[in-house]
Design a protein that fits this description.
Strand content: 15-25%
CATH superfamily of the largest domain: Vaccinia Virus protein VP39
Structural class: alpha/beta
Helix content: 40-55%
Order of helices and strands: HHHHEHEHEEHEHEEHHE
Distance between the termini: 60 Å
Strand order of the largest sheet: 3-2-1-4-5-8-6-7
Largest sheet: 8 strands, mixed
Number of helices: 10
CATH architecture of the largest domain: 3-Layer(aba) Sandwich
Shape: globular
Length: 278
C-alpha cells in the first residue's frame, strides 16, 4: 500500500511538471502547433501513468462516462439537431448526443484523443457521429452548418487572447438563431487545475466575452438541474448573479470547502445565441 501511495504521488508530481511546462509555453506562444504538442504529451501521459481503470473503460482516456455537465448540455441540445462538439476528449458526450438522435461532428486537436474516439465508434456499431481534427479557432466546416455548437471544460484551456477568435469561429459555423452551449468552472473556486487552465472566468466575464462578439448570452443555473429543473434564467437574474459574485470575491469564497463553493457559485453554463440577422 505504501508503495502504491508513493507511486501515485510521483505520478501527480510528474503531471504537475508537465502541465506547468506547457502552461508557460502556451501563455507565451499559444499557436495551434504548440497546443497540438501539449495535448499529445498530456494524453500520452494519461495513457502511460493515469488511472489503469480508465484504460479498460469505454473511452479509456478520461472518465469513459458522461459527466453531470455533459448530461446537462445534452438535455439543452435535445434531439434531431446538427451538433458540433469542440474538444471532444474520449467522445463520451458525442456518443450520447448521437444516441439521442442528433447528427454530430466532434473535433479535437489531439490525434490520440481522435484515435480513442474512433475505437469507441467501432465498438458501438458506427453511430451517427464523425470525429475529425479541429481547433477552437479553426474549424473545417462550412458557414451556418450547425444548430448547436457545444464544449465542456474547453474555454478555460484557451489563452485569454484566443477567446474572441474562438467565439467568432463558433458564430461562423452556427446557423442563424443557433446556440453555443459551453460549460466551464468559475474562477471563484480558485485554481482547479495543475496548470492547463490558462484563463478561468466568472459569470460576468464569460457573459461579457460572448456579448462582445454579438451573441445573446443566456445564463443557465446548473444547480437546479440536480433536482430535475433546467433553468434558463431571465436577463435581470444575471445582474443579481454579478452582484453576488462580487460579494463572494470579497468574502474569499475560494477558501471554503469545494461542496460549499459549488452551492454558492455553480460552474458556468451559458447558451450563447447567434442573432438571426448574422
Amino acid at each position: 500500500m505504501e508503495g502504491s501511495d508513493t507511486r501515485k504521488e510521483s505520478d501527480k508530481d510528474r503531471q504537475y511538471k508537465l502541465e506547468q511546462k506547457w502552461r508557460k509555453i502556451l501563455l507565451e506562444k499559444p499557436t495551434k502547433e504548440n497546443y497540438a504538442k501539449a495535448y499529445t504529451e498530456l494524453h500520452e501521459f494519461k495513457l502511460a501513468y493515469g488511472d489503469p481503470r480508465l484504460h479498460k473503460a469505454e473511452g479509456g482516456l478520461y472518465r469513459g462516462t458522461v459527466s453531470f455537465a455533459g448530461r446537462t448540455i445534452a438535455r439543452l441540445v435535445g434531439c434531431g439537431k446538427d451538433v458540433l462538439e469542440i474538444g471532444c476528449g474520449d467522445g463520451s458526450l458525442a456518443f450520447l448526443l448521437a444516441e439521442n438522435g442528433n447528427r454530430v461532428v466532434a473535433v479535437d486537436i489531439s490525434e490520440i484523443a481522435l484515435a480513442v474516439c474512433n475505437e469507441g465508434k467501432a465498438r458501438r456499431g458506427d453511430p451517427e457521429v464523425v470525429f475529425k481534427r479541429g481547433e477552437a479557432t479553426e474549424i473545417e466546416c462550412p458557414d451556418s452548418t450547425f444548430d448547436f455548437v457545444i464544449s465542456q471544460d474547453l474555454v478555460e484551456h484557451l489563452a485569454g487572447e484566443l477567446m474572441p477568435a474562438h467565439l467568432r469561429e463558433v458564430c461562423r459555423v452556427l446557423k442563424p438563431g443557433g446556440s453555443y452551449v459551453f460549460w466551464t468552472p468559475t474562477r471563484l473556486y480558485g485554481s482547479t487545475s495543475m496548470g492547463m487552465h490558462l484563463k478561468e472566468y466568472n459569470l460576468r466575464e464569460a457573459v461579457k466575452a460572448v456579448e462582445a462578439e454579438g451573441f445573446k448570452a443566456v445564463w443557465v443555473d446548473a444547480r437546479l438541474y440536480k433536482i430535475g429543473v433546467l433553468a434558463e434564467m431571465p436577463s435581470f437574474a444575471k445582474s443579481l448573479a454579478f452582484a453576488w459574485e462580487s460579494i463572494l470575491e470579497k468574502l474569499k469564497a475560494d477558501l471554503l470547502p469545494m461542496g460549499a463553493r459549488q452551492i454558492l457559485a455553480p460552474p458556468i453554463l451559458i447558451r450563447a445565441v447567434k442573432p438571426h440577422n448574422v
